[in-house]
Design a protein that fits this description.
The chain contains 7 helices and no strands. With 171 residues, it is an all-alpha fold.
Length: 171
């Protein structure tokens, strides 16, 4: 209960800091539900989110009750939620398959790898980390590491992963 209360306070504080951004994301998610309803099982297809979003947004604003949201309207490149975007492009069946395989991989991972996967998974709720090349590579490396690697080799791999991560963060 304490963790839930702390989480709610944290979410509220984040909303206060950037309400326009939060309201815009909520609108994006609301409109994305239209896409998900239409392409529930198999999705609309790879890399179709932007196009499908524009069509769904048009139908959303045809309802006069939604006119108040026009100030937040945009055609975003990303859904600002990897799960919503994945479902709209690939459907629930593929999402369940991907989550199943990730959970199977995580069962046999060391804590540092598990934490990396969990961090990317949590960040995916309000952002688009899997559209950033360096995080994609890091996530793939986390998924590919195995527990049966010797401890010294595992530490070496972790150092390499961290080095790669920071190299890709350079601008």
């Amino acid at each position: 209960i304490l963790i839930g209360c702390i989480l709610l306070v944290f979410i509220y504080l984040l909303y206060i800091i950037r309400p326009l951004s939060a309201d815009s994301r909520l609108l994006i998610w609301r409109i994305s539900i239209i896409i998900i309803k239409k392409y529930f099982i198999f999705g609309a297809g790879p890399n179709t989110f932007r196009y499908q979003f524009a069509k769904a947004q048009e139908s959303f604003f045809q309802n006069e009750a939604n006119v108040e949201y026009v100030k937040y309207a945009d055609i975003p490149e990303y859904a600002f939620n990897e799960y919503i975007e994945f479902i709209s492009e690939y459907g629930f069946i593929r999402l369940f398959i991907v989550i199943y395989f990730i959970l199977q991989i995580m069962k046999n991972q060391k804590n540092i790898v598990r934490y990396g996967i969990i961090n990317v998974s949590i960040l995916s709720i309000t952002s688009y980390p899997l559209h950033i090349l360096s995080i994609q590579i890091l996530f793939i490396i986390f998924l590919s590491l195995r527990e049966n690697i010797a401890e010294d080799a595992f530490n070496r791999i972790c150092r390499i992963v961290i080095i790669f991560y920071f190299i890709f963060q350079l601008h």
